Structures are given as structure tokens and as C-alpha cells.
Automatic annotation (TrEMBL):
The lineage of its organism: Bacteria, Bacillati, Actinomycetota, Actinomycetes, Micrococcales. Belongs to the peptidase A8 family. Keywords: Aspartyl protease, Cell membrane, Hydrolase, Membrane, Protease, Transmembrane, Transmembrane helix. It comes from Knoellia aerolata DSM 18566. InterPro entries: Peptidase_A8. The chain crosses the membrane at residues 46-68, 75-93, 113-132. This is Signal peptidase.
Length: 155
């Protein structure tokens, strides 16, 4: 829940500090925006209640998966899962207040986003990489008798 608290604090601070201005940090600007949709503003024409209900259901599903996965997960996967859940919950809480998510990180070449989005993306990426790595390291080669004989060309 620390992840969610960090994001919700950053959103509240952004709404106060960036209401009438923006801050240029070079590659990144702090600029207040509101997103009524989900990722990349998809679904922005749906009623807010529908978006809140769907995103809340997804967050609950993620928590259920994490709860079942935790006993087998290593510490990196647990931290990544916590980042995903914290980011999802923070965005649901923010959206449930007024139907929009507060965004404040702007690049100019990517849609404006927030820390919760960063936690979600990073957490999912780490989990995906861990699972890909596990697949690569746990796959066992077939025994030699399962392979056809190799012709060497030597008579």
C-alpha cells in the first residue's frame, strides 16, 4: 500500500502545485492533466462508473493472483507484484473520487501519465521478464534418444 500512498500523495500535490503552471525538467515536464479513460485514454467515452467498476475488478483479480502466487514467488516478484497492485489500487481510488485519473508526468512524445502508471508498467515488465527467464532456465533439453541420428558423412 506504500506504492498507492506515494502515488496518491503525488497526485494531490500535483493538483495543488500544477493547477496554473507546469515545470520543465528537460525530458520530462510536470504538467497537470486528467484522464477519463484508461491506458492511452481508451474508453474515455464510457460512463465513469463502468470504468471504475472494470478497473476495480481488474485490481481485485490482480490481488487474487498475487495472493495465490506469493508462496512460490521470490522477493523480486513480490515487490513487482506489490508495485502492480499498489498502482492499480491508487488509480482506482483516484478515479472513484471524480471519474478521472490525475496525470502529471508529461514527455511530449508519450501520453501524460502518473507514478501509479509507472509502478504498474515496471511491475508488469519485471514479472514478465522473471517468467521468461524462468522458462529459459527451466526448460530441459530432450534426451539424446529422442533426437534423430546425426549423419557425419564419414564412411
Amino acid at each position: 500500500m506504500t506504492v498507492g500512498a506515494i502515488d496518491l500523495t503525488a497526485k494531490a500535490t500535483s493538483e495543488v502545485r500544477l493547477a496554473d503552471s507546469s515545470v520543465d525538467l528537460g525530458l520530462l515536464q510536470l504538467q497537470l492533466a486528467y484522464n477519463s479513460g484508461v491506458a492511452f485514454s481508451m474508453g474515455n467515452t464510457l460512463p465513469a462508473g463502468v470504468v471504475v467498476a472494470v478497473t476495480a475488478a481488474i485490481a481485485v483479480a490482480l490481488m487474487g493472483y498475487a495472493w495465490n502466487r506469493a508462496p512460490q514467488a521470490g522477493w523480486v516478484e513480490r515487490i513487482a507484484g506489490g508495485s502492480v497492485i499498489g498502482g492499480a489500487v491508487a488509480n482506482v481510488v483516484d478515479r472513484s473520487r471524480d471519474g478521472v485519473v490525475t496525470d502529471y508526468l508529461h514527455t511530449g512524445w508519450w501520453p501524460t501519465f502518473n507514478l501509479a502508471d509507472t509502478f504498474l508498467s515496471t511491475g508488469f515488465s519485471v514479472i514478465a521478464l522473471l517468467h521468461i527467464r524462468r522458462e529459459l532456465t527451466t526448460s530441459t533439453p530432450k534426451p539424446m534418444e529422442d533426437h534423430p541420428p546425426v549423419m557425419t558423412g564419414i564412411a
